[in-house]
Amino acid sequence: MVDTFFGLTNFNAGKIFMKKLSSSWGNNCKQMSDWISLDWQDEIVDFNIYPSYLVQGQGRSYGDESLNSRGAILSTRNLNKSLGFNFEARTFCAEAGITLSEILKMIVPKGFFLPVTPGTKWVSLGGAIANDVHGKNHHSKGTFGNFVVRLELLRSDGKKYLCSADQNSEYFYATIGGMGLTGIILWAEFRLQPIESSDIELEEIKFSSYEEFLSLNEQSNKNFEYTVAWFDGHYFLKSQGELQGIYMRGNHGSSLKLNQNSPLQSHQDPKWSIPCFLPNWFLNKKLLNAMNFCFFHKRLAKIVKKRVHYDPYFYPLDGINHWNRAYGEKGFYQLQSVFPINSGRKTLQEISRTIKKFDQTSFINVLKTFGEIPSHGHLKFSRPGITLCMDFKNEGISTLKMLQDLNEITFNAGGCLNPSKDSTMNKEQFKKLFQKKESEVNFFKMIDPKFSSDLFQRVRA
Ligand SMILES: Cc1cc2nc3c(=O)[nH]c(=O)nc-3n(C[C@H](O)[C@H](O)[C@H](O)COP(=O)(O)OP(=O)(O)OC[C@H]3O[C@@H](n4cnc5c(N)ncnc54)[C@H](O)[C@@H]3O)c2cc1C
């Protein structure tokens, strides 16, 4: 994220806040906002100064969901203290700005892991709840929100609400996956998963068709907690939606590995960083096609079994700080959709044709299936089906037009788009995707009248 300070502008309950240029993780939208740091749970926020407010955690959502150009941003970066373990109940409690990275450093040496983790550990606990994040174990565990025991919510009426399945439950279920629109999550307690080792026992299997991906997936989802597939984006376009790639399935390792001092070692911080935006030409089709080719063909064996630390398995992109700068100053867009498996081949073919028509290419291509475990939150992105993630360099209007067409394909296939990655959903699409069921309608009643975001301004009917 790019953060540029532009000097002091105002005071709020004795606090200084600043004008700041903030951008989403995709760097495709940059906005000036007033920026207020929340430093402790008893912070008094004056909700009468700005027309609207929005919490930002680590700003790791790709689109405009954590931006609020018409009001103020409340940053939770300093609201990051651990509030402790409950070993008996196997829960962990912390202020909402703590990152998953900080949590892992505390829980792994004690023999615990996150119940669900997204593909980066640089997200805040509040962000993980507000987007009800999913991980490689959606088929076996569902989403992060399903493990939240309770949380405290500060609303703009100045009141704090302790929320759980039994207490203020409407706020609880609206806040899980609520995109930060129901108020400030001050702290939360969630259930942990016990582990014996910080390693993952991993199998990587090459596949060469959509059918092979599906059959691997069916076998693997029964015996492996974590499953995900990378596929070759160049081959996908060349073969009009056919797949070749590497299926990765794993379980938490048991007992000690040979010559290992301690089975429970948390991760190290990354050594590499991209210090500034790379030139626009850096990521180009030729480089990408060569990388795809090498990644797929360097493995000669059909199956590779290995034991790896959790860090490179769950968080491969976290190895380089600010990797998003490789896309250049104009940034990039991520599309994440979920669509039904039955018509999945047809949907993938249409997606491939559309990308080719606009002469674009995707730099990261990930496929996985979501299982049947429903999210507890009112607003649900994760639903049974195939979920596809693709990253597109921002080439201006043609990328935006292509994304609109890709949204329509998902929409016509009966699928859904992930708001935490989105920058292009329109009002009609949002309404049709998220205002169908009674629970989704209930979500809108729980929105705090003083909270808004650039995404919400864009999609609200
Ligand atoms: C490399 C990478 C991989 C990713 N992989 C996955 C993945 O596998 N699965 C997945 O689900 N997501 C994934 N994501 C998306 C990411 O997990 C979510 O966008 C997450 O919500 C970001 O957390 P954050 O702290 O950065 O929140 P921000 O981006 O700062 O904010 C996101 C939303 O949360 C709200 N929010 C944040 N803190 C609070 C709070 N304390 N109270 C109320 N609302 C709050 C904000 O208002 C905003 O609406 C990935 C992102 C990246 C960059």
On the 0 to 100 scale, the average pLDDT is: 92
CATH class group of the domain at 199-423: Alpha Beta
Q: Can you count the helices?
A: 13
CATH topology-level name of the domain at 199-423 = Alpha-Beta Plaits
Largest sheet: 8 strands, antiparallel
Structural class designation: alpha+beta
The oligomerization state is single chain
Shape: globular
Terminal Cα span: 29 Å
Name the bound molecules: flavin-adenine dinucleotide
Helix content: 25-40%
Indicate the radius of gyration in whole angstroms.
21 Å
Give the strand tally.
22
Describe the structure.
With 461 residues, this protein is α+β, with helices and mostly antiparallel strands. The protein has a domain at 199-423: Alpha-Beta Plaits (2-Layer Sandwich). The chain is 25% helix and 28% strand. The chain has 13 helices and 22 strands. It has helices at 100-107, 125-130, 138-141, 169-175, 210-223, 233-238, 285-297, 310-314, 344-357, 397-412, 427-434, 438-446, 454-459, and strands spanning 3-12, 15-23, 30-37, 53-56, 72-75, 82-86, 91-95, 112-113, 148-154, 160-164, 184-191, 193-194, 199-207, 226-231, 245-252, 272-273, 303-309, 320-321, 332-339, 362-370, 385-393, 416-417. Strands 17-13-15-14-20-21-19-22 form an eight-stranded antiparallel β-sheet, sandwiched between helices. Strands 1-2-3-5-4 form a five-stranded mixed β-sheet, with no helix packed on it. A hairpin with a 5-residue loop joins β9 (148-154) and β10. α4 (169-175) packs across α12. The longest helix is centred in the C-terminal third of the chain and has 16 residues, at 397-412. The chain is globular and about 60 Å long. The site of flavin-adenine dinucleotide has 33 residues, from β4, α2 and β11.
